[in-house]
Amino acid sequence: MSKQRIFGLDILRVLACYMVIQVHAGEFFYIGEASAGEFLYIGEANAFLGGNDAFWVNLYNSLCRTAVPLFVMITGYFILPVKEELGIFLKKRFTRVLIPFVVWCALYAFYQYFRGQVELGMAFLNILKIPVNFGTEIGHLWYVYMLIGLYLFFPIISPWLNMASKKHLQLYLLLWSVSLCLPYIHQIYPEVLGEAYWNHTPSLYYFSGFLGYAILAFYIKKFHAEKKKEHLPIGSLLVVAGYIITYLVFASQAITSQKLWDVELSWGFETINVGMMSLGLFLLVKNIQRSSSTVFNNLITSISNLSYGMYLLHIMILNIFYSLFNELIGSVTIKIPLIAICCFISSYLVTKILSYLPKNKYLIG
């Protein structure tokens, strides 16, 4: 039985897919050279290049940090609590996710070889490394490992979700929200709540991570599925406040920090500001109804259905448009959205073409 479509969540999935691509389009202009050649950066590996380009990256892409949390929230909204038998659930999910992932890992390995970034032997070695980590060192594939972890845990947590009261869920989400503040607390106190070099599982460890976004979406489905008048002001406030925090912290860190992970402090998916923006966008968009335009409705649904395939393949297309526009256009103000939009449209068209192939689910999910 196919799941019931919720048009607002289709829109959110399309937005999240575009935002991922825009984030990666922006990375060309503020990060030093990637050690494994994912992009053709100029500069020391993992160094923060800064300058005016970084200003525009921050302005454009701070909101886009919600992309992955939104993907997880949409997944949690539809799946939790798991009602299928364990074997059926895992087979269905892993067939859709794992097989295309392995295929694209192999394709990226040979893609890097044909671009002259790795030797042929290293390409095969990268494929063999897939069970350990994303074997081709293509950064965006980290998401699939995280998603697999959630799929494995969803059936385990579902019995609790079935019986959990509103107060139980609120307590979990409160503690999870506190865990989202830890990246900032660590700037003052590097080790808190039992953290030490011999202990990597402090007090809030079990309330942290992407699982919180999935449970947040389940909570919304259970208690706030219908459109409520307070969703608009609350959602708007969360998005604006979260964006301001994200932007200002990045701008401040850009002045004082040289390493990428320090500058991107407020861009972490597990930060309170990104959580605020993600929740705000979810509340604002989830109840949008289908428009009177059949063409628009069908396009949104089509992109939503193909978003996983677009996610997997977009890096190849992104590099093409970067090479095309980087020297042709001088202003980063124009280049970032132009590269992102062209890549988004092209990724959709390529994925749409692939969807007509036999057994396409093994290629694009």
Structure in words:
This protein is mostly helical. It has one domain (7-364). It has helices at 7-26, 51-61, 67-79, 86-114, 120-128, 142-163, 166-179, 182-188, 211-223, 231-256, 260-263, 272-285, 294-305, 307-325, 332-354, 361-364. The longest helix is centred in the N-terminal third of the chain and has 29 residues, at 86-114.
List keywords for this structure.
365 residues, mainly alpha, 16 helices, globular
**Helix fraction?**
55-70%
**Number of helical segments?**
16
Give the number of DSSP strands: 0
Sketch the major β-sheet.
Answer: none
In terms of DSSP E residues, the strand content is under 5%
- Structure classification: mainly alpha
- Give the terminus-to-terminus CA distance: 17 Å
Tell me, rounded to a whole number, the average pLDDT: 90
Poorly predicted runs:
33-47
Shape: globular
Helix-strand topology string: HHHHHHHHHHHHHHHH
Count of spatially separate domains: 1
Q: Specify Rg, calculated over alpha carbons.
A: 21 Å
- The quaternary structure here is single chain
In short:
The chain is globular, with a radius of gyration of 21 Å. The chain has helices at 7-26, 51-61, 67-79, 86-114, 120-128, 142-163, 166-179, 182-188, 211-223, 231-256, 260-263, 272-285, 294-305, 307-325, 332-354, 361-364.
